[in-house]
Design a protein that fits this description.
heterodimer; A: alpha/beta; 2 domains; B: Rossmann fold; Immunoglobulin-like; six-stranded mixed sheet; 27% strand
């Protein structure tokens, strides 16, 4: 399958500078980030006082309090940590369908989300789910200077045929990430659903967000007459005579299937956001994802 | 709806061919879908590669079939029968009996309401002729329904008879003038008139709408005052008629010059008449008889007349008067015949009260009332302009009171038609014999025969006829009588409906809802060959091929759009 050359306009990402991820878990990727942490560490964010104990840094003693109360009190400050962000991109062949195609849209979305993470000094990893068994996770991107490299890697993403998305999700987290925010960008097209994969992710102390990519062509297929349907992942054939009744039944079935996927995510404590590929990226980032509290 | 080119329906094979093309040659496109499991086992989504599978119902196929069918329909030239413009002739019976109040408020108002209902069904493009059948048939309106509506609202009933035959003929002639319209004649009447003569083929079917139907009426059918032979008194002859189906006691009052002279109850059997003689003083002038009871028709409950009593009247006789005529005039006590040659100059005060013209009719008529005896048939004033020859007998008319009509009917009329100013009182098939009317503003009685030819002037009927004529024409000249718009015809006191004649055509009769009056449905089948309207030509057809053709073009455009969008 040829690589999909995705035009990613990184120079337009500047309008996402003020965005930040909202995570339900504490950031544990180490100091230097902008997310609050339970750890106390020297910083400018005052939290509380506590009595001096031997070994404390004299520089943190509040001498004004000592002069007023006669007891040594040490200022306690809150640490700021960076967030581990894992962007999981479904690279199955079904993502290459649709108009606009879902994979191109998803790639741009992942690039924009990576930019937001990098801009907030978070640690970003991009995982492309393919049918090669072990998902190829990238190196972490922690600095804005590495954005071009991130974009370059995404631009080489190619659809990879059939994919067991549950297996991919179960193995998508690299070692060393701690309480990461995992954003799964996928069309979720699998007969068995994604319950297994989501369960495996939740077991890793993660905060999971499913960004379900749907093409308008899927909602309202323009088919008529005798057609031979080819499955984009399995190349399975199905000959059908598409009538008006057939289209109506398909729409009803698709609506049910979409509702089932959303319910499945909610049942596993996973945030679910459905994104249409004909929406501009700017609207998705600034409106859709902020409205669904994925970004702020 | 009909098809002007039904052979074009063979073109319905084209849609069938389109379906077969879809069946046999429908291409099967390969479409890549993200997941095939969403398409599996959908209803009507058949599987397999059999060529015998019916083509699925798609927008493309539907639009092609619809477009082809519409085009074929357009080629077949569908047409619908157009509703042609109508010409409705309303004949409104304006006889005296239509003033009967047995239906509220009156028969005439009920007929007017029926007429308004008929006009409400018409379109502005329709034509309406409103004919008033009074003593004469007159066209009140001929044009759009709005004009006829206002004319109908302004129409008034008369006191005389109804010239039904003439009105129908007039309506028929008006309808025949518009052969491009569907004609219909509606006669609004109470059917209280004697059977008229046959009228022949009509230009349109006649529908008779009946109103009223009762006969509860008592009437004064005659009032005459004669001077007693002694010259010292007068006698009023009163005739009362009970038209009801039961005996009635009729309260009657007679007044002379406003003073009551007689007040009595008169018993009259059902459907009969009673005649009374009541002495009057010699100087009584205006005599009035009233019925004090209440019946359906108030018009005939009062009768007035001018008694011949009073000062003698001057009579001037011009022309070749016979001795018998001279003697008849001189024998009338209230008349003073001027000697021959005493012709007054124009404008002088001693003008005669009555001028008798015998065999002459000068170009300039003398002033005052006229009695014409055997007038010249060549006079333009006597040219017949009315319908028919005036063959009728108004036996109750004052001119014929007390006369043996058999003797009169044998006379030979000197004129062949009815002049426009005259009403025929007695006439035969050859022409009118006794006429009355107003000629150039003068009351005129015309005896259009020479009494000397048949020897009538030797009989006793002659002086009585002259007496009636002079009394009548002098009474008409009286200002009090002249104020009366239309004299009541005693025949109108019989308000009971009579069987409707066929008029030589098929009648469609409406049964009165309130009275249940049945006007003889058996006549409906009479002369069916004449019932066909001359205006009932083949209805026009309006072709409607443009609409299906436009729809076909629209559908084909939509089909092209679908094809362009989906390939």
């Amino acid at each position: 399958m040829p690589a999909v050359t995705v035009p990613i306009a990184i120079d337009t990402f500047g309008r996402f500078d003020r965005l930040a991820f909202v995570s339900r878990r504490q950031a544990r990727a180490g100091p230097g980030g902008e997310h609050r942490s339970r750890r106390r560490a020297p910083s400018t964010d005052f939290v509380d006082y506590r009595p001096y104990q031997p070994g404390d840094d004299f520089r943190r003693v509040d001498w004004n309090v000592f002069g007023r109360l006669g007891s040594l009190q040490v200022k306690v400050t809150e640490a700021r940590e960076s967030l581990d962000v894992v962007l999981v991109l479904d690279c199955s062949s079904s993502m290459a369908c649709g108009q606009p195609d879902k994979l191109g849209f998803a790639t741009q979305l992942v690039a924009a989300l990576g930019y937001v993470a990098v801009a907030r000094s978070d640690v970003v990893r991009i995982v492309c789910l393919t049918n090669t068994g072990t998902p190829p996770w990238s190196r972490s991107f922690g600095r804005r200077a590495r954005m071009p490299e991130l974009v370059r890697q995404l631009a080489q993403v190619a659809p990879a045929g059939w994919l067991d998305i549950n297996a991919g999700l179960s193995a998508c987290l690299p070692d060393g990430v701690r309480q990461p925010l995992v954003l799964v960008v996928s069309d979720l097209l699998t007969r068995a659903g994604v319950a297994l994969g989501l369960s495996a992710l939740r077991a890793r102390q993660t905060d999971v967000v499913v960004l379900h990519v749907v093409s308008p062509d899927e909602l309202d297929p323009r088919l008529a007459g005798e057609v031979e349907l080819v499955d984009a992942e399995t190349s399975e054939l199905l000959e059908v005579g598409v009538s008006l009744g057939t289209l109506a039944a398909y729409r009803a079935r698709l609506a049910t299937w979409l509702d089932e996927r959303e319910a499945e995510c909610h049942a596993h404590g996973v945030r679910y956001v459905r994104l249409m590929t004909d929406r501009p990226l700017e609207s998705v980032m600034l409106d859709d994802l902020r409205r669904s509290a994925v970004l702020r | 709806m009909t098809l002007l080119a039904p052979l074009a329906l063979v073109g319905l094979l084209v849609p069938a061919a389109i379906y077969l093309v879809h069946w046999f040659f429908g291409s099967r496109r390969r479409v890549r879908v993200p997941a095939i499991f969403l398409w599996a086992d959908l209803p009507r989504a058949s599987t397999g590669r059999s060529r015998r599978r019916w083509p699925p119902l798609t927008w493309l196929l539907l639009l092609q079939l619809l477009g082809a069918i519409l085009a074929v329909v357009a080629l077949a030239r569908p047409a619908t029968p157009a509703d042609p413009p109508r010409h409705l002739a309303l004949v409104l019976d304006a006889s005296g009996s239509m003033q009967a109040t047995d239906v509220a408020p009156s028969r005439f108002e009920a007929a007017r309401a029926r007429g308004v209902d008929r006009l409400a069904d018409l379109r502005p493009s329709d034509l309406v002729t409103l004919v008033r059948a009074g003593r004469e048939a007159t066209v009140l309106a001929n044009g759009a329904p709005d004009g006829a509506r206002s004319a109908l609202a302004a129409a008034q009933p008369g006191a005389g008879g109804a010239a039904i035959r003439e009105a129908l003929a007039l309506a028929s002639s008006q309808i025949s003038a518009t052969p491009d319209r569907t004609g219909q004649i509606v006669l609004l009447t109470d059917a209280a008139f004697p059977p008229p003569d046959q009228i022949g083929p009509m230009a349109a079917p006649v529908e008779i709408v009946a109103v009223g139907g009762g006969s509860e009426n008592q009437a004064i059918t005659a009032l005459n005052v004669r001077i007693d032979p002694s010259g010292h008194g007068q006698t009023a002859f009163v005739e009362l008629a009970n038209q009801a189906d039961h005996a009635a006691r009729i309260p009657m009052q007679l007044t002379a010059d406003g003073a009551p002279l007689d007040d009595r109850q008169v018993d009259v059997a059902a459907r009969t008449r009673a005649r009374l003689s009541i002495p009057l003083p010699v100087d009584a002038r205006h005599v009035t008889v009233r019925l004090l009871g209440h019946d359906a028709l108030a018009l005939d409950d009062v009768r007035e007349t001018v008694a011949p009593g009073g000062p003698p009247r001057d009579v001037l006789v011009l022309g070749r008067a016979s001795d018998s005529l001279q003697r008849a005039l001189e024998s009338i006590p209230v008349l003073r015949v001027r000697p021959p040659g005493a012709v007054p100059a124009q404008g002088r005060q001693d003008q005669p009260d009555l001028t008798v013209l015998v065999g002459v009719l000068p170009a300039q008529l003398p002033p005052g009332p006229l009695l014409l005896v055997d007038p010249p048939a060549t006079s333009a004033r006597l040219l017949g302009v009315g319908l028919g020859n005036g063959a009728r007998i108004l036996a109750a008319h004052p001119l014929l009171q007390g006369l043996d009509l058999g003797a009169l009917q044998g006379e030979t009329p000197s004129v062949g038609g009815v002049p426009g100013w005259a009403h025929v009182v007695l006439g035969s098939l050859q022409g009118p014999l006794v006429m009355e009317g107003r000629l150039e503003g003068r009351p005129v009685v015309a005896l259009t025969f020479d009494p000397a030819v048949s020897g009538l002037d030797k009989s006793l009927a002659f002086p009585l006829l002259i007496s009636n004529a002079t009394a009548y024409v002098l009474a008409q000249a009286d200002p009090s009588n002249a104020a009366t718009a239309e004299a009541f015809d005693p025949a109108e006191s019989d308000i009971a409906p009579r069987p409707i004649p066929t008029f030589g055509l098929v009648l469609r009769q409406a049964q009165d809802e309130r009275t249940g009056l049945d006007l003889g449905a058996s006549r409906d089948s009479a002369h069916p060959e004449l019932g066909t309207s001359q205006n009932s030509a083949h209805p026009e057809l309006v072709e409607g091929w443009k609409w299906p053709l436009a729809a076909a073009l629209v559908v084909l455009g939509a089909e092209w759009l679908v094809f362009a969008r989906r390939g």
